Amino acid sequence: MEYTTLLLNMDGTFLDFGAAERSAFFRAMENNGYEADEGTYKLYSRINHGLWEAFERGEIDKQTLLFTRFGRLFESMGVEGDGAAFEKEYQLLLGEGHELMEDAWEVLEYLYKKYDLYVVTNGVEATQRSRLKLSGIERFMKDIFVSEAVGYQKPQIEFFDYCFAHIDGFEKEKAMIIGDSLTSDIQGGNNAGVACCWFNPSGKERSLELRIDKEIKSLKELLQFL
């Protein structure tokens, strides 16, 4: 298949969200006088992951996710804190995190010359755009679609319908989504009827019955078929 359009997830695929999240978490905790160690971070990660899964299933909205997670963390830690205020500071710090995944720049520079590249990401609009700009990879993108601005999130079909409607001359059969999340990117690609490439650097098992057209362990593998 000759593809013309690539829909690119960012966090965990081209941007190292893990590094950005970790840095923002510990900096925000220190700034607010909370003691935090690896156990605290793992506790937050479990709370956050559960809320994101509920968000992707459409069970909660973005505001509930954002302004609940740190309140739950503080409650679990047995400390007092304003979760909503903490979230705002955390988002500002997160927006500074722009580390790239291995080979991301080289691969994007190559793909940019051959395909129309679009960001499709779940997250906070200002935070995601800040990270894309600081990383420098914003220049490769024809447009950026963030769930907060779209009003829907991956894997909802409405998110993709919005994206497709805002891409000039879009042809579904000539599009591929590339991402690391089975529940968000690959499920979303299945829902939307586009080809799916699963970025699976850690060799996870397929936990869902999904159509996966390509599976890669490194971004450089994209150069073998694109």
From TrEMBL:
Keywords: Hydrolase. Signal peptide: none annotated. GO terms for molecular function: 5'-nucleotidase activity. It is an enzyme of class 3 (hydrolase). Its EC number is 3.-.-.-. It comes from the Bacteria. It holds the Pfam family HAD_2. NCBIfam families: HAD-SF-IA-v1, YjjG_YfnB. PANTHER family: PTHR47478, PYRIMIDINE 5'-NUCLEOTIDASE YJJG. This is Putative HAD-hydrolase YfnB. It comes from Eisenbergiella tayi. The lineage of its organism: Bacteria, Bacillati, Bacillota, Clostridia, Lachnospirales.
